[in-house]
Amino acid sequence: MIEPHAPAPPGVRPDRKPPPQGLARLPVRPATGRFLVLACVFVCAACGLVYELELVALASYLMGDSVTQASVVLSVMVFAMGVGSLAAKRLRRFAAAGFGALETTLALVGGCSAMALYAVFAWTGDWGGVWAHGPRVLLVAFSLAIGVLIGAEVPLLMELIQRIRRQDAGGAVADLFAADYVGALVGGLAFPFLLLPFLGQLTSSLLTGGVNVVAGAALVLGLFRRDLTCRARCLLLVANIAVLGVLASAAVLVDDFERAARQAVYGDDVRVAVRTGVQEIVLTGGTDGRPLGLYQDGRLRFAGHDERRYHEALVQPAMSGPHARVLILGGGDGLAAREALDHPGVRRVDVVAFDPGLVRLARTDPGLSRLNDHAFGDPRVHVATEEAFQWLRGAPPATYDVIVADLPDPGMTASTKLYSQEFYGLARRALAPNGRLVVHAGPVAGRPRAFWTVDATMRAAGLRTAPYRVDGRDAGLTADPDRSTGGSRAPRDWGFVLATADTRPPLRLDRHEQPPRTLTQAELTADARAAEATRVTGLRPSTLVHPRY
User: Fold this and answer.
1) Residues 6+ apart with CB under 8 A from 444
2) pLDDT given for residue 27 in this prediction
3) 245 and 309 fall within a common domain
4) What is the rounded CA–CA span in Å between residue 463 and residue 504?
5) What is the spatial distance between Cα 164 and Cα 161, in angstroms, rounded to a whole number?
6) Which HAMAP family does the protein's record reference (predicted)?
7) Does residue 43 have a pLDDT over 70?
8) pLDDT for res 352
9) Residue 478 belongs to a domain with what CATH number?
10) Average pLDDT of 165-169?
11) 512 annotated ligand binder
């Protein structure tokens, strides 16, 4: 027998269910409240992705190897997000207060993460000793902390949106993740195209933290304030004001902080520090008889008298033969061009440099332009600001007598494709008959496997190679070597590979009527024998799809 329905309470239509229990007491209509929650999801997702990209970018800049740094940050952060989601289950009863506290903490940790990571790198160094892994440990710690906090957002936001208006779980999740993914898209595009070029890494992370704390506070203290006790509202308000004060103070002092950190990294002799669209360039010395040092993205490119020794070793052996047409890949500082122009018979030097900012500095800076003998003012020099690989793809075949690859070390992810078999195949095509290609292949003593992989890769591209190395004589900075921050030194040696398409090239210096050289034929021969003694056999070539450095 079917029981008859109980009569409906007065004022309630019998065909409608009573409103569900536990709904939030909102100051606005439910539809508006739901929109505001989704808007907060959008903003928080954008901020979370900016924190993530900040860590990847700064870690790649400070520690190199962007693939490794991105893998560490992303994998640790995704794992931590899962941990945060589980941990947030205990906070669902206090969803509004928990979310407010969560966003305040995330804004502080994420907003200050870039500055803290840079400070540890600057004042402890990443060059050995007890603090050698300090930046890496801090990178993992921030990735864990930010990941846990981001992961805890979703369960709490799910609870809040359900407290506004009950709906099926699938629909609520779809709405929540749609706003989350769109916010992540906006944050991911804003970082490289807006925040980084206009504000820099430190200021953009602080600004992101400020946006994060304002969004979280507005949602909790505005929309869900009736769900909080008076004490909870006061504590959240004070905490948010304190975090905003910290972030604002850091933003005001960020320029002073950068100057102090830069001095800690480069010493007190910093003369020029500029960020181009490609990299940060720092020049030390170069005036009043002080040796000039050039840093690119925190890495010492050259310092002191070793500069001339390095560029002689790079260019001079390749010039011992026909050299009317010279191509320099890299070399935006103009120093390799200086060495090539010293030789009589040079009719044209093409320099393909990726960073126009470095070329501009090499033209205009008094110290650097004096060091390169104003090479870019020579009418025989023609500059193309383009990526070397792409430029070679369009280069006419059999054009150059000499090709000089003055590129960053092969171990840096951004330059790995410039040490690939495909790259050397393109360079071989651009060589004229009897032309020579010389490649800077990184330090032999420090990274013999990478050096001999370059040699194996060039041979796989059909080139006959003559590997050699040259010891440094200065190999240091002008800063006090006893300082813990003065440890970022030049390599103790440089490795090079000279190659031709036909027979194995002789390794000899081209002498001419020029100022005294720092490198002798006897040294070159002896150092080539020393390099041969370090040979690593059985190495496979590096390709675009299978890099081996």
Assistant:
1) 451, 469, 493, 494, 495, 531, 534
2) 87
3) no
4) 8
5) 5
6) Spermidine_synth (MF_00198)
7) yes
8) 97
9) 3.40.50.150
10) 77
11) no
Angle at 515 between CA 513 and CA 519, to 5 degrees: 100
Pairing mode, if any, of strands 280-284 and 270-275?
Answer: antiparallel
pLDDT band at 22 (very low <50, low <70, confident <90, very high): low
Is 334 part of a structural domain of the chain?
Answer: yes
Of the residues 212, 234, 253, the one at which a domain ends: 253
Alpha-carbon distance 398 to 382, whole Å? Answer: 18
Does residue 64 share a domain with residue 151? Answer: yes
On the question of pLDDT at 258 being above 50, the answer is: yes
Kind plus residue range of the DSSP H or E element containing 458:
helix 448-460
Q: Tell whether 510 is in a known binding site.
A: no
Residue 59 pLDDT level (bands cut at 50, 70, 90): confident
* Residue 67: alpha-carbon gap to chain centroid: 10
**24, part of any domain:** no
With bands split at pLDDT 50, 70 and 90, how would you rate the model's confidence at 325?
Answer: very high
What's the CATH number where 232 sits? 1.20.1250
Which H or E run contains 214? helix 196-217
pLDDT, tens digit, 9 for 90 and up, residues 271-306: 898 888 788 899 998 877 788 999 888 788 888 768
Domain contains 23: no
Cβ distance 338 to 330 under 8 Å?
no
Confidence of residue 476 (pLDDT cuts 50, 70, 90): very low
Residue 336: which residues within 8 A CB-CB, separation 6 or more?
Answer: 311, 314, 315, 328, 330, 351, 404, 406
- In 205-269, beta strands by DSSP E: none
Residues 346 and 495 in one domain: yes
Same domain, 249 and 331: no
Q: How many residues does the chain have?
A: 549
**Residue 333 annotated as binding site:** yes
Q: Cα dihedral sign for 322, 323, 324, 329?
A: positive
HSE toward the beta carbon, residue 90, CA cutoff 13 A: 4
> Which of 438, 408, 375 minimizes the C-alpha distance to 302?
408
pLDDT digits (tens, 9 = 90+) for 512-537: 555 567 888 999 999 999 999 999 99
**Residues 6 or more apart from 322 whose CB is under 8 A from it?**
401, 402, 432, 434, 435
- If one counts the domains in the chain, the total is 2
The residues carrying an active-site annotation are: 406
- Is residue 421 in a domain? yes
pLDDT at 9: 44
Residue in 219, 88, 225, 101 with CA at minimum distance from that of residue 161 = 219
Give dist(CA 463, CA 449) in Å, integer: 19
Tokens representing 90? 């205990």
Domain range for 472: 304-509+519-532
Give the per-residue pLDDT at 549: 84
Q: For residues 51 and 111, what is the distance between their CA atoms, to the nearest angstrom?
A: 7
The contacts of residue 317 (CB under 8 Å, 6+ apart) are 438, 468, 496, 498, 505, 507, 508, 509, 510, 524
The two three-digit tokens of residue 534, written as one number = 């370090």
Which amino acid belongs to residue 38? L
List pLDDT tens digits, range 349-407.
999 999 999 999 999 999 999 999 999 999 999 999 999 999 999 999 999 999 999 99
